[in-house]
Amino acid sequence: MLKQALCLLLALALLSGSAAALTWEYPVSAHPEVDYADMLPVTGFDETALLAALKELEGVCSRHSRDRGTRETRRRVQALYELVLEEMDLLATKANLSGVQYDASGGAPAEAALYLELSAQQTRLYDRCYQVLSAMASSPYSDILDEDAGEGAAGSLQGYRGLTEEEAALYEEEDRLTQTYDQIMEQGVPVSVEGRVWTAEDLESAQVDGETYQAIREALAAERYRAAGELYLQLVRLRTAQALRAGYDDYAEYAYEALYTRDYDLEDTAALREAAKQYILPLQLRLLEETSEQELRSLSVQSRMNGEAVLDVIQPFARDFDREMGKTFDFLREHHLYDIEYGETKLPTGYTVALPAYGSAFIFNSPYGDYQDLSDTVHEFGHFFETFHCAQHDLWTDFNIDVGEIDSQALELMFTERAEALFGERYGTVYRDTILYNILDSVLDGCLYDEFQAAAYQNPEMTVEELDRLFKVLSEDYGYSYAPGVNADPTWVENAHNFQSPLYFISYATSALSALDLWFLYLDRPREAKETYLELSALSLSLPYMAAVEEVGLRDIFEPETVPALAETLEAYLDGEPVSYGQRRGSTAGRFEGILLVLCFVLVALGAALRLRRTGQKRAERRRWDAKDPWSPQQSRESPRRTGPDPWSASDKKPPWEL
Known about the structure:
The chain is mostly helical. The chain has helices spanning about 1-15, 50-65, 70-105, 110-135, 140-150, 155, 165-185, 200-205, 210-245, 250-260, 265-290, 295-300, 305-320, 325-335, 370-390, 400-415, 420-460, 465-475, 495-500, 505-525, 525-540, 545-550, 560-575, 590-605, and strands at about 190-195, 195-200, 340, 350-355, 360-365, 640-645. The strands form two sheets. Strands 3-5-4-6 form a four-stranded mixed β-sheet, sandwiched between helices. A two-stranded antiparallel ribbon has the order 1-2. The longest helix is centred in the middle third of the chain and has 40 residues, at about 420-460. The radius of gyration is 26 Å and the shape is globular. The termini are far apart.
């Protein structure tokens, strides 16, 4: 019997390493067959039904606070609760579609007004929902909340105090200021040169000599930087007020804990920044030195394609990766849930947003016209795939950005296996190295902008001039060089995340390091890596970053030895050495091989007790992350991955990839 069992285990272990279809189970989520065109035009949200349901639900829960009421009453509470969820899904969907239309139109007045209106409704109605659900959490019907939103949801809602009018006004003012930033960056600010007022549009159509043209151009840029910088100071003061009202010492601490529900803190990232400078920067500089400008230009020419051609290239990869991923990509294309073609009016941004009313998502991108359009679309499809399989209603959707960015950045790295077939051996290598450079850039820029923003919010009295000088000093720490005599750099305003999504950028650094970790596993054991990727995407952002990577068996990047180990592996890979990931962790194949080794030992030992032990890392217990303020209203619109011109394209700074 022992021998038979051993043979069976051996057969199973061998089968587990074959190319059989992956069988990961995703949460059940409905995906109605609705085309994007049929979701338009975007209209305002009629809140009548929602407010009526909330009023009735609040009354029922208050009346039956001492008993469970009748079965009929319980059914009514369940029905009202489900109606609230559906209406909030609809509101979130309208707001997200409105955001897409706003960006597609270049921030046109009508689209801007609708988006502001829907954002204000979200702030107010989220608050009203949580007030009513707080009453429900203290009623005999609290189990309905726990069953739907997860154990502990009712307890988290008890005592929710709601937004004051002043707090709601702060959120609305924040939305208004970020839209003003969009207008400044898109349209510029008029300047007076030689007795005439100039705009960027005037300059392009004017007949002036080269010296005058350059003087006006520099004046327009300086005024744009100045206006955006002054607006940033307004946002810093406003957000500092938000943080102080919530009981935090500064907005940096508030953003980490309450806005992004991170399970690491500013002290952790301070150590990570130093590791990035020491171990990641030299590898990025190596990639920069080994790739010529001519090779990048040639790759850009070869990779120029329209949006449909980009999707044609990615579709076979998605189908080969996993059957469910292929079906998801097919759904994306069949219902045209994307806008990735060039548009003259488009704001320069790219992102994926959820459409919870349709159980789906939408990809928006303003293309560059080169290889980045391919990598950006792969990146955004990683977000789309995760969002598409999220079974949570918008009211309960978690906001763990770092986890979602692993889904996207790891997929970018895995896609590089197709580069040689697309661009040939030479330029396939250039494409791979470019993606690797960008991943390392995510680490370094993530740390740079986190350090810069943390300083700004911890010192809210800084002036624009002081911020410009600070950014120049920090940039040099991360490998950027300036011409002699340059003592300040205002180009940080080109990065819209500083304005729209404060303290967001560190999530690119943490997730990029974990994406590298997962990619190394993929190079050594692709099937196991695919299983890990699918498990991670199936979490649907329900765990914060450190808990999620532990759940799927990836390394802890905050451990002192992890970043040096990742850098050592990457350096060896660039030297042409094969990647060996080490012990198998957590996968089915790994468990069977562990059992097999134990049984073989038993046969050799002749008499030792048979014990079956699972190998791989112990899984962390699933849990919901509770921040001090887990229900603070926030836009569900995902922040763009990149916005505006390359911040390193200033003429007096050496850009990393200057085409």
